[in-house]
Design a protein that fits this description.
single chain, about 140 residues, alpha+beta, 5-stranded antiparallel sheet, about 30% helix, globular, Histidine_triad_CS
């Protein structure tokens, strides 16, 4: 499915110009126009999925297989020191385009980018309660 009013669907269809790094029948990989670091890429499925909750397992598997290929190419070409994979779902989590996409953000020593969060303390009892709740929903 393609959504006519979706920015990433338009990019995937070639209606909007992008700095395309890779393309096949399932995905388009582009350079982010507002990069966190040099070489920041987005992997965009050509089929429209609003978020990870809508993504099917087959597409997810192909996406992560492609992500490993792109990550290795980025390490080779950009000589980055590391890499973050970031995927946001919902406005509260920072999703700004409602079309599933995976960020590959090359990291460089001293780049100043901070993707860390404050760690919370949790009791063993709370941990077990959460574990059982999630396990029950699988």
């Amino acid at each position: 499915m393609i959504k006519e009013d979706c920015l990433f669907c338009k990019i995937a269809k070639g209606e909007i110009h992008s700095a395309t790094v890779y393309e096949d029948s399932h995905f388009t990989v582009i350079l982010d126009v507002n990069p966190a670091t040099k070489g920041h890429c987005l992997i965009i499925p050509k089929e429209h999925f609003d978020n990870i909750y809508d993504l099917d397992g087959e597409t997810a598997g192909k996406l992560f297989a492609l992500a490993t290929c792109i990550a290795r190419a980025m390490k080779d070409a950009l000589k980055c020191d590391g890499l973050n994979l970031v995927q946001n779902n919902g406005e509260v989590a920072g999703q700004t385009v409602n079309h599933f996409h995976l960020h590959l953000i090359p990291r460089y020593e001293g780049d100043g980018l901070n993707l860390n969060w404050p760690q919370q303390e949790i009791s063993g009892e709370q941990l077990e309660e959460i574990r059982l709740s999630i396990k029950k929903s699988i």
